[in-house]
Design goal:
This protein is α+β, with helices and mostly antiparallel strands and 395 residues long. It folds into three domains: 4-148, N Utilization Substance Protein A, Chain:P, domain 4; 152-222, Nucleic acid-binding proteins (OB fold (Dihydrolipoamide Acetyltransferase, E2P), Beta Barrel), CATH 2.40.50.140; 310-395, GMP Synthetase, Chain A, domain 3. The chain has helices spanning 9-20, 24-45, 93-97, 118-148, 226-236, 238-241, 278-283, 288-296, 311-318, 346-350, 355-364, 378-394, and strands at residues 4-5, 61-66, 71-81, 90-92, 108-112, 155-164, 167-172, 181-185, 201-209, 219-222, 245-253, 264-271, 301-306, 326-331, 336-341, 367-372. The strands form four sheets. Strands 1, 2, 3, 4 and 5 form a five-stranded mixed beta sheet that branches. Strands 6-7-8-10-9 form a five-stranded mixed β-barrel. Helix 2 runs antiparallel to helix 4. The protein starts with a strand and ends with a helix.
C-alpha cells in the first residue's frame, strides 16, 4: 500500500495533545479530517474545467494515519458493479475478481487511492495547516459537549479567568481529574453582590451546554438561577438529601428590576414525617444552615415557608414574614386571591417595590391582591367577584 510520509508525525500529535489538553485519539481524528480536505483540494485541482464536486462526493473516502511509519494513506470504500459509472464510488467486478475470487456484485471493497504525486503532498500540507486549527477546535467542542451534557442542571466550582464585555469567563471542570474548561457567566446570570476578582471562586449552576459551531465558551453558567439555591439547601440540609424534606416550589429574584431592592428568594418545603419540622430543618440550629446558604449567595434574603395543600394556608405562608389575617379565594378558576392584613402591615406584605407579593405570586401560582383589612367590604367584593364569574362563564 502507498504511504505518504509526514516526518515528525508522532511528535506533532504528542505536542498538540499536550498543548490543547486533547486526548491523542481526538488529535488523530482532527488530523485525518484536515488531510482529507487536502486530498479533496488536490482532486479539484485536477479538473481542467474547475467544475465542483457534489458536497458528499468524498463521503466514502477516509484517511488512515500510520504513526509507526510516520505517514498517511487515503482509502476509499467502493461498491463492486458490472459497469462503472462513478469511479470514485464503484469498481468493476472484472478488476476485483483477479484478486478476490469470491467477490460478488454489490459487495464493497476498501482500496488505497493515495496519489503518488509531489503536487498532492504540497497541497495536502498546505490545506492541513489551514484546516487543522479549525478541526482541533471542533474536536474540543465535541469533547466538551460529551463531557458536560449530562451535567446540565448541576453545580460546579468556577474560577474567574477574565472579563469579556459584560460577561465573566470562568474555568470549570467536571471532576478533579479532568482539565479545566472555559464557561461564560453572562451579565444577566450574575449576582449584584458578587465581587468577580481574577482567580476568585464561586459555585455556579450549569445552565446549558451550547451546541453548534459558534465561537467562545460552550458552557453557560449561572449564579442567578433558582437551581443554585436548591443545590445549596440540599448540600446543607441532610433531610433534603435523604428525601425526608422536599422542596416543593421556589421563586427567586436574583436581579430585581430596581437596584434599590436586594436579591430575594422564597422556597416552599414540606415533609411526610409528622415529627419533622421542614422549615426548622432548613433553617438549622441558630440559623446555621440557612446562614451558610445566605453567605454563599452574598447576603441574599431567603424566606423558607411551609407548603400546604390548602391554597389559603399556602398563600398566607408565602407572604412571610408579614402576618396575614385572612385569605379569600375570590376566583379559584382564575386563581385570584385577596389577602387581608392589618393596616400597618400592608407595606410589609407588599414588600419594597412589590417584591414580596411578586415572589409570593410566583411561588404559589395565584394572583395575590393585598388588601387593608380595616377597609375591606366583604359584600361588595363578593358581588364584584360573582359578576366577574358570570361574565367569565358567559364568554
Amino acid at each position: 500500500m502507498t504511504i505518504y510520509r509526514l516526518p515528525g508525525l508522532r511528535a506533532m500529535i504528542n505536542e498538540i495533545s499536550q498543548e490543547r489538553n486533547l486526548p491523542k485519539h481526538a488529535v488523530h481524528q482532527a488530523l485525518k479530517e484536515a488531510l482529507l480536505k487536502g486530498y479533496e483540494r488536490y482532486r479539484r485541482s485536477l479538473r481542467p474545467d474547475h467544475s465542483h464536486f457534489e458536497e458528499d462526493h468524498f463521503a466514502n473516502f477516509e484517511v488512515e494515519l500510520d504513526t509507526e511509519q510516520e505517514g498517511f494513506r487515503v482509502l476509499a470504500t467502493k461498491t463492486i458493479t458490472e459497469t462503472v459509472e462513478n469511479p470514485d464510488r464503484e469498481i468493476a467486478l472484472a478488476d476485483v475478481i483477479e484478486v478476490v475470487q469470491d467477490a460478488r456484485v454489490g459487495d464493497t471493497v476498501l482500496l488505497d487511492v493515495t496519489p503518488d504525486h509531489q503536487e498532492f503532498g504540497r497541497m495536502a500540507a498546505m490545506q492541513t495547516k489551514q484546516v487543522l486549527a479549525q478541526k482541533l477546535r471542533d474536536q474540543q467542542r465535541r469533547l466538551v459537549q460529551e463531557e458536560f451534557k449530562d451535567l446540565e442542571g448541576t453545580v460546579l466550582m468556577g474560577r474567574v479567568l477574565r472579563f469579556e464585555r459584560r460577561s465573566v469567563i470562568m474555568a470549570v471542570r467536571s471532576d478533579a481529574s479532568q482539565p479545566e474548561v472555559e464557561a461564560e457567566l453572562p451579565k444577566r446570570e450574575q449576582l449584584p453582590n458578587d465581587n468577580y476578582r481574577a482567580n476568585s471562586t464561586f459555585k455556579v449552576y450549569l445552565k446549558r451546554v451550547k451546541e453548534g459551531p459558534q465561537r467562545g465558551p460552550q458552557l453557560e453558567v449561572s449564579r442567578a438561577d433558582a437551581g443554585l439555591v436548591v443545590y445549596l439547601f440540599a448540600n446543607e440540609v441532610p433531610e433534603i438529601e435523604d428525601e425526608v424534606v422536599r422542596i416543593v416550589a421556589i421563586a427567586r429574584e436574583a436581579n430585581p428590576p430596581n437596584h434599590k431592592v436586594g436579591p430575594r428568594t422564597k422556597i416552599a418545603v414540606d415533609t411526610l414525617e409528622r415529627d419533622v419540622d421542614p422549615v426548622g430543618a432548613c433553617i438549622g440550629a441558630r440559623g446555621s444552615r440557612i446562614q451558610a446558604v445566605v453567605n454563599e449567595l452574598r447576603g441574599e434574603k431567603i424566606d423558607v415557608i411551609r407548603w400546604s395543600p390548602d391554597p389559603a394556608t399556602y398563600i398566607a405562608n408565602s407572604l412571610s414574614p408579614a402576618p396575614v389575617e385572612d385569605v379569600r379565594l375570590i376566583n379559584p378558576e382564575a386563581r385570584i386571591a385577596h389577602v387581608l392584613v392589618a393596616p400597618d402591615k400592608v407595606s410589609q406584605a407588599i414588600g419594597k417595590e412589590g417584591q414580596n407579593v411578586r415572589l409570593a405570586t410566583r411561588l404559589t401560582g395565584w394572583k395575590i391582591e393585598v388588601r387593608d383589612s380595616s377597609q375591606y367590604n366583604y359584600e361588595e367584593e363578593d358581588r364584584l367577584a360573582m359578576a366577574a364569574l358570570e361574565e367569565q362563564v358567559a364568554s
